[in-house]
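Question (not urgent): is this output format expected?
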Amino acid sequence: MLIDSFAPEFDATEVHRIAINASRQTVYEALWTADLGGSPVIKLLMLMRSMPGLLAQRHQSLPRNQKVTLHTLTNSGFGLLAERASDEVVLGITGRFWRPTGNLSTFKRSDFDHPVPAGFARGVWNFSLGEGLDGQTILQTETRVICGDSASRRKFLAYWFVVRPFSGLIRLIMLRNVRRAAEKGR
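Got this back:
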């Protein structure tokens, strides 16, 4: 898998998958166009996560009801690391996720060719498609996090202990949204 070339070893991981009654091509197209954040639960969790940053920058307004797709994710801190059409998409992000505002770094693809700097963590997130039973497609998402040093690892793992259930819930809802879009578009 492409994700292995960016994070063969990691400090934390989370994997979710779902079976979809549609072809790989249909699922792949839905992955790019489905509203991944179109659920009240995801909107609430994303609002809660962005609240410290909004409060720190009082002049900034609350985000509008923008559709969350893979395209909008790549404009909000995540960057496209690799893509193999109808097979896998890999996104990346770097920051100090454990801080209230997330302290995200500006995405630079070349940074992912080097070790994670001390004091930072790097997230690598993929969506991969595989063959299921009876013409189904299996859509899987995996998140891997690599920390730059032991201090950032301790901070991240404490943060991850709290947010992991919510992060997992978001990913499960995203997978269901892709399934809904793909099965509707068959």
